[in-house]
Design goal:
Blueprint lengths: L10 E4 L5 H10 L6 H10 L1 E7 L2 E11 L3 E9 L8 H13 L3 E6 L4 H6 L3 E12 L12 E5 L5 H12 L4 H10 E8 L2 E11 L2 E9 L2 H14 L4 E7 L5 H7 L1 E12 L10 E4 L7
Parallel strand pairs: 4-5, 10-11
Antiparallel strand pairs: 1-2, 2-3, 3-4, 5-12, 6-11, 6-12, 7-8, 8-9, 9-10, 10-13
Length: about 290
Amino acid sequence: MSDPQTGTAVRYRRMTEQDLDAAHRLSLSVRWPHRLEDWAFIQRLGAGYVAENDEGLIGTALCWSHGTEFASIGMVIVAGAWQGKGIGRKLMAMVMAELGSRNVLLHATAAGRDLYARIGFQQIGEIHQHQGTVFKSPLMPLQPGERIRPLGSRDAAKLAALGARATGMPRATVMAALQDVAEGVVIDRYDEVIGCAMLRRFGHGYAIGPVIAPDIERAKALISHWTGTYGGAFLRIDVSGSSGLGPWLTELGLVQVDSVVAMVRGDAPLPDHGVRQFAIINQALG
């Protein structure tokens, strides 16, 4: 079909696994750091649509359902030469139709924020991207009876419950998928899991996230575990603007390099106040 705003033959269709190589090249063209493996991980968990012309892929948009009430959208990319021609809006309409009546979350770059606002999204927070290399990681004390231990095969249900409490959305599917590609640790208090942090290969190094804990001191303890274990490696962590972790992360060597806006269309989920998600999985999945 011909796109009425571009006057050229732009076709829209559902994304398949065969599109991953082209999608990866597209994200590199706009300087996103995702590896092909990072694309494969998120594509398996959701659905997506692409825009293409005779020369190849020029746009993508993916979405993920979190139960029947909530969903997220991400990887909305349009090739530089094709931006401002209505392609992003068309792809957004397709993924929104895929999600139906769910409340939809996303993280908006400066380039996409106005588009999302025009179709009904409202700001509910910010996410700050920190990255760098840590050469000296502090030892953070825990409370009596608490210890950091590796995530075990029998922890899947506990991890899913912790993720749901921290985000206000079902997280069993995504947390289970993370266990296949990430290392994980938990804070164990007398056999009760009260916090977790995962680390996986991503982009130019490793990403820490999610980090879920009852308070900032325990969040720091979990992050310190990974900055100590992977001292000297390139690390990235995306934390909420209200986390309070920014100055501490900067002191460690993980400086803030970018920010995105957290937005919702519909109602935002209501987390359990007894536990917080200090760092997200990534900007696509939340």
